[in-house]
Specification:
With 278 residues, the chain is mainly beta. 8% of the residues lie in helices and 63% in strands. The protein has an 8-stranded antiparallel β-barrel. Strands 1-17 form a two-stranded antiparallel sheet. Residues 35-39 have low confidence and may be disordered. Residues 39-234 form the Outer membrane protein beta-barrel domain.
Length: 278
């Protein structure tokens, strides 16, 4: 009888161990990181810039004498000047933005000279001319941001618009080439006019905060020619052939809503894995 009970218990123990071996434990469920939806930095921004313009006057012409012949200035030089401006723009997406800017070119002095005849009897003379100009430029611009590398985003851009160029009075004094005399100073009234303008830009912005970017760049500005001064004392009117400016600029952009937080979505529910029976 004891042997029978021992055999029964041994059989039950073997069956139980075999069943337990077939009942594999459930594999651990890996934790999924939360999905993050990052909003692109889009929206309106304000900008401000200052710069230094290396100007190049592309020449000047005027009507000389009673025969109304238009001739070139022998020399026509324009000093460099500072620029200051601002604007409002819109960041369309991470790669494209556009803005409307208004800039002021501070007073740049003009120095020129012409040759002709003066006095009585007429002798060969050289006239020394002095004036200055200022310019207001309104441009519509578009930029392509070339990707962000750390905190730096290089870009290229172009703009089109107009400039109001205002010349002050031109003063000239003609002196005989032999140094024998000089005529009295003659003043020609300055002129102002709107001219077609375009610009090409390149530079880089640097993330300072989540909604403020510093900007360092270069701008080439092309302004068409226009009226320069009026008629006086048998000379004029005159016009300039236009000017170009190579500008080094620094500034900043403030993006409204640039600090908006990324929105988080909870991970999808994963059903518990059922035990696997072998």
């Amino acid at each position: 009888m004891k042997r029978s009970l021992s055999g029964i218990f041994a059989t039950l123990l073997i069956v139980t161990n075999a069943y337990s071996a077939d009942f594999a434990p459930a594999e651990p469920i890996p934790e999924q990181p939360p999905e993050v939806t990052v909003s692109e930095a889009t929206g309106w921004y304000l900008r401000g810039d200052v710069g230094y313009a290396f100007t190049d006057l592309r020449g000047a012409r005027y009507f000389q004498g009673s025969n109304a012949t238009e001739v070139d200035f022998d020399d026509a030089d324009l000093d460099d000047a500072w620029t200051i401006g601002g604007g409002v723009g819109y960041q369309i997406n991470s790669y494209l933005r556009t803005d409307l800017t208004f800039d002021y070119l501070t007073e740049a002095d003009f120095r020129g000279s012409t040759v002709g005849q003066c006095g009585f009897p007429l002798v060969d003379c050289t006239s020394t001319d002095r004036s200055s100009l200022t310019a207001y430029t309104l441009l519509a611009n578009a930029y392509v941001d070339l990707g962000t590398y750390g905190y730096v985003t290089p870009y290229v851009g172009a703009g089109i618009g107009g400039s109001y160029v205002k010349w002050k009075n031109l003063r000239n004094v003609a002196c005989a080439d032999d140094g024998s005399f000089c005529d009295d100073e003659v003043t020609h009234g300055g002129r102002g006019s709107w001219r077609f303008t375009y610009a090409l830009m390149a530079g880089a912005s640097v993330d300072v905060t989540c909604n403020f970017k510093a900007d360092v760049g270069y701008r080439y500005l092309h302004i068409d020619g226009g009226n320069m001064f009026g008629y006086a004392e048998n000379g004029g009117p005159g016009r300039d052939r236009g000017l170009s400016a190579h500008e080094v600029r620094v500034g900043g952009r403030y993006l409204f809503g640039g600090c908006a937080q990324a929105s988080y979505e909870p991970p999808p529910e994963i059903p518990l894995q059922q035990p696997v029976y072998k």
